[in-house]
Amino acid sequence: MKYRDFLTLHILHHASEEPVTGSFMMEELGRHGYHVSPGTIYPLLHALEKESLLKSHWEVRGGRRVRVYEITKIGRKTLDEGRERLKELCTELLGE
């Protein structure tokens, strides 16, 4: 799996739990050791939307317009498949 794949799975996971924003994902990924800049996260979110893994809409939060991303059916399927691949990799690497 590539670095982008891990970021994608992480984004899809959180978007499956609740709608997310780019700033939330930068903070969340930072808590897990990823140092992701706006120049990385926003193009990735847009690419995931273009691939139909996410859909977005605008909301006003704290007086500011923010783009909010939600997972799609295709995104859920991709997340499920990614989880299976990750399980297989962990089993192979950790022997469990």
Automatic annotation (TrEMBL):
Gene3D superfamilies: Winged helix-like DNA-binding domain superfamily/Winged helix DNA-binding domain. Residues 11-80 form the Transcription regulator PadR N-terminal domain. InterPro entries: Metal_resp_DNA-bind_regulator (IPR052509), Tscrpt_reg_PadR_N (IPR005149), WH-like_DNA-bd_sf (IPR036388), WH_DNA-bd_sf (IPR036390). Pfam families: PadR. It comes from the Archaea. This is Transcription regulator PadR N-terminal domain-containing protein. It comes from Thermococcus camini.
